[in-house]
Design brief:
There is one protein chain. The chain is mostly beta strands. The protein has a single domain, classed as Beta Barrel (Porin), CATH 2.40.160.10. Helix content is 11%, strand content 55%. The protein is built from six helices and 17 strands. Strands 1-2-3-4-5-6-7-9-10-11-12-13-14-15-16-17 form a 16-stranded antiparallel β-barrel. The longest helix is centred in the first third of the chain and has 16 residues.
């Protein structure tokens, strides 16, 4: 099935690359991209074990487009195949698919509505994380944009209101979104507990989002942003209290504390994520920094006994991009992420609650439709090391690096 989906996507891609947008209709625009990367991670398995010796199982193929009508109505969407070694198998997915209606607009303000699977504007880079050529380097900053929740963070099935206003020559744009989105239960389990659960399943989650961006009239090269996301994850578990008690009796003493994920009989997570962003452009330089605050509450049962736990997490990065020429860009980034107090650990991964890292990257647009990206990342702690099924059988190192060379074609 996956091979059939990928072949269909490639066929559509080849048809579109030989047909410019105006050949369909002047109001129909179709674009696409293929990104193929080679990744080497000698210290820790990165999305799978193949990358330890170098892997080319990192590929993105996307096809997007939109149809415009004179009435202010627009339809847009994107399908994507994404392979990341053992973590993502390349199944075709719908990243977004929406109807966009600009209700009112003049030189001072605008207001519109989007319905469908709408993109989420969180921070400066979330809404463009699906386009390889638009990302700062090979990937968006790991300390802010969690890859474990890439799909539910990228888009929401629901309603999006958006607008802009010119206030005393200051530019304000805003978006508000309400909806739901499915999450991958296994990704959630690894991110939250560090292990897969035998008896659990995560429901579709509600998402409430507000995003603001501001450009002051006195300093047009400065951009400020703030985003707030609220969600609740109900985790359904088929493990009964009696079954959990029996499991506890058959396990060695202290196993409940050491492996709490094996004894969860009910779970609910509430999360409030706030992101604050600043970007300044100075001649050939773009300086960017973002800060994340995550407030998470766990309300559940361990072997039938109520458990409540709250945790505050923080992340940030500072980044400098140098637009050296019209075809080359260089980047350096430092980032940190800490979950809770940064001291929680697992037997196989004792450093998963924090991360610190440097990233250097370069981009070369050697032809109009072609882009070559190189990146090296040097890390301490494994807060953003991608989880995959079976990672619990590995012994994870505290210090780890990875290196990427990526070739991107787009039209």
């Amino acid at each position: 099935m996956r091979k059939h989906q990928l072949n269909l996507l490639m066929l559509m891609f080849m048809i579109c690359t030989h047909s410019s947008a105006h050949e369909f209709h002047e109001a129909i625009h179709v674009h696409g991209f293929v990104n193929q990367a080679a990744l080497y991670s000698p210290d820790n398995p990165y999305a799978g074990n193949d990358a330890n010796n170098g892997s080319v199982k990192f590929r993105e193929i996307g096809l997007n487009g939109y149809i415009e009508f004179h009435s202010g109505l627009r339809f847009a969407g994107q399908i994507l195949s994404r392979q990341r070694d053992e973590l993502d198998d390349g199944d075709v997915r719908v990243d977004f698919l929406l109807a966009d209606y600009l209700i009112w607009s003049n030189q001072y303000a605008a207001f519109g509505v989007r319905v469908g699977r709408v993109k989420n504007n969180i921070g400066f880079y979330n809404s463009i994380r699906d386009i390889p050529s638009a990302r700062p380097g090979y990937n968006v900053p790991d300390s802010i944009y969690f890859d474990a929740f890439r799909d539910p963070l990228l888009s929401t099935d629901g309603l999006n209101l958006y607008g802009s206003a010119l206030i005393y020559d200051n530019q304000l744009t805003w978006e508000a979104t309400i909806g739901r989105r499915g999450i991958d239960s296994e990704d959630f389990e690894y991110f939250t507990f560090g292990y897969p659960l035998e008896d659990g399943d995560a429901d579709d989650v509600p998402i409430y989002l507000l995003n603001l961006n501001f450009i002051p009239s006195a300093l047009r090269d400065l951009r400020l942003g703030a985003s707030v996301v609220s969600t609740t994850i109900d985790f359904d578990t088929s493990l009964s209290v009696a079954e959990a008690q029996q499991r506890m009796m058959m396990s060695p003493p202290g196993d409940v504390q050491a492996n709490r994920h094996r004894y969860i009989t009910a779970a609910e997570f509430e999360a409030l994520l706030a992101t604050f962003s600043v970007q300044y452009s100075l001649k050939d330089w773009i300086l960017t920094s973002e800060y994340l605050h995550l407030d998470a509450e766990f309300d559940g049962e361990i072997v039938g006994s109520p458990v409540e736990n709250g945790e505050k997490s923080h992340g940030f990065y500072v980044q400098a991009e140098w637009l050296a020429t019209t075809r080359t860009t260089w980047l350096v980034r430092y980032e940190e992420l800490k979950f809770g107090d940064g001291k929680s650990s697992l037997e196989y991964n004792p450093h998963r609650s924090y991360g610190k890292g440097w990233t250097v990257s370069g981009q070369w647009k050697f032809a109009d439709d072609w882009l070559l990206i190189g990146q090296a990342s040097f890390n301490e702690g494994t807060a953003w090391l991608p989880d995959f099924k079976g990672i619990e059988n590995e012994q994870i190192q505290k210090y780890w690096n990875y290196y990427v060379l990526s070739l991107n074609y787009q039209f």
